[in-house]
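Fold this sequence, please.
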Amino acid sequence: MKNKLPIYLNIFLCLITLFSSLQIKLDPPIWLGYGDPYDYLEQSKIPLTDIHFYIPKHVNFYPRPFTVPLIYKIVNGNPESIIIIQKIIHFLSAFIFASVLLLYIKRSRAKIFFLISWYLLMIWWNILGWTNNILSESLSISFLFLWFSSFLYFEKKKNNITLILHSLVTILFSFTRDSWPYILIAFYTIYILYSLLWEKRIKISYSIFLTLSIILFITQQYTAKVGQRYRRPVLNNIVYRILPNEKYTQWFVENGMPCKDILIQKNINFNDYKAIYSLYNDTSLNELHRWAIEKGNVVYMKFLITHPKVLLLLNEKRTDLNRIFAYDFGYTGDIRGISYISFYIFPFFSLLSVILLLFFICYISFRENINQIIFSITVIIIFTLNAFLLYSADALEVERHLFLTNIMIQFSGIYLITFILDSKTFDLGRE
């Protein structure tokens, strides 16, 4: 019975938190106040047999990667049903991840600590709140943990079925947001380097996953270009980060950016989002729009590479950099229901505390050969890269684009403490 307690606890916590979350209803719905939900709903109307569902063109809406519209299509684009299915997928992904991680944890104390901490994190409004909005954030979180789960399960049960399963989850996860292919490539590259350095060989499975992630990157770049998905971020960056700096502006002009004088004459108020949004459909900037679609993203990446201070955020003010760790910042409405429990707990871990925990578990791993150290290190590295990538990718709504940073800090803290408690160092007697 004692050995099965964590399994029963996982089921109980999943059901009770799911049921409690389904009782939370925002009235009026929070999603009505945003423009993006209508784009997702419009794309979900395209038939699955139409190639434009997967590679949508910019016609009467702003196209997105296909996974989120696919989930919305399952419930016929009904907003109330979308919110329900997002909550179900959210807690299903939490349950699956917990089930997989329990395969790696040996000691009961560590299992109980993990399960309680894990579900407290899953009901944190900074995570659960997104399920009430018709945006990509909630499903992106859910598929992130499904991706983690399928990878860790593959590591535990290496066979063709788990390899195919992880590949399928990776595809769906990749197409929740355009930034994920970069992270996929980084993740599998780290694992290949690990196998090369520590095992003196490159595992075929890691090579397959890296190849898949490169294919996904190329495919998503193509679909983003067809759907003009980089046009708005490029324009935002030019207005917010380039125009205020004369040298940067001249660099872009020398690299082909048109309409400099028109942009300057508009004397844009950087604090007025509506003024920025009006540029998206400004016909006097049609030449700039075409350039942003065809060359803007490549030129901006070239700019970041040739200006390392900008890429490494060395020119940013501390107050601006704090947006990387933002949480509960408005897109999810006021905190409700069961989330009040976690309101007084999270954020519990700071970046510094996670780094100290990482050093401690590294010390323990040298004594006990804890095989989970590589996963925790990789997660911390890829989400550090993710913070740099997304901060630079779009100058608008930085907090929203980086909503995962603080979530992953809390996740990493829970994960590290779990395996510290699972180590022999904390053996207090027989369990």
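The chain has a mean pLDDT of 90. DSSP finds 23 helices and no strands in the chain.
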